[in-house]
Amino acid sequence: MNKVIKGNIETIDQLSDFIGGLSEAEYNYTHGTVLSSSIGQHLRHILDLYHSLMTSSGFELVDYDIRRRGAALETDKSAGVAELKAIRQWVIELTSQQLEGFCTVKTEVMLSDSSSVTAESTVQRELCFVSSHLTHHLALMAISAKLAGCEVSDNVGLAPATASFVRSQQPNEVALAG
């Protein structure tokens, strides 16, 4: 299996396991003073990035500006879990030819003005980006869950490079798990 696909599957699986262990209340928990977005809202944001890749017509234009704020999956855990499963399956089915293909990405770049740019990329590079972004938001979701009183493994939301560093410091330890 392609390393980028395998890495995406690992992060999606870690996210799925994390979300699966939450109650509806924890999924919708917002601390307020520390984090203003719920875990479900973070999940929707992550899924929006994958959704932009999935729904682009032949990867011609991947528009990261399209967001589904207020979508049911922000508050309905089962909707979020179902979409995660669909994205996982889509990632698994990507071909080498698709991964190596070029795409144009569009994204907003300014806070002070509505201003988007387009840039050339590859599908493989964009999958690296969305997986990395998933990891970043999963770390934030783990903080939110801890603030809600959940027990969360320190490995949840750990970046691949950090996991490699930890393994290098503990050569006789077992591999990191979600």
Compute the CA-based radius of gyration: 17 Å
The CATH architecture classification is Up-down Bundle
Distance between the amino and carboxyl termini:
20 Å
Quickly count the domains. Answer: 1
Major beta sheet summary: 3 strands, mixed
What are the segments in which pLDDT stays under 50 over at least 5 consecutive residues? none
**Average pLDDT number:** 92
Q: Which strand order does the major sheet show?
A: 1-2-3
Query: Would you give the CATH topology?
Result: Four Helix Bundle (Hemerythrin (Met), subunit A)
Q: Tell me the number of helical segments per DSSP (H or I, 4 or more residues long).
A: 7
- State the name of the first-level CATH class: Mainly Alpha
Query: Please, what is the CATH homologous superfamily?
Result: dinb family like domain
Strand content: 5-15%
> Given the helix and strand composition, which structural class is it?
mainly alpha
- In percent, how helical is the residue content? 40-55%
Shape: globular
Return the string of H and E elements: HHHEHHEEHH
Q: How many extended strands?
A: 3
Q: How does this structure look, described?
A:
There is one protein chain. The chain is mostly helical. It has one domain (3-152): dinb family like domain (Four Helix Bundle (Hemerythrin (Met), subunit A)), CATH 1.20.120. Helix content is 54%, strand content 10%. A three-stranded mixed β-sheet has the order 1-2-3. Helix 1 runs antiparallel to helix 4 (77-93). The radius of gyration is 17 Å and the shape is globular. It starts with a helix and ends in a 9-residue tail after the last helix. The model has no long low-confidence stretch (mean pLDDT 92).
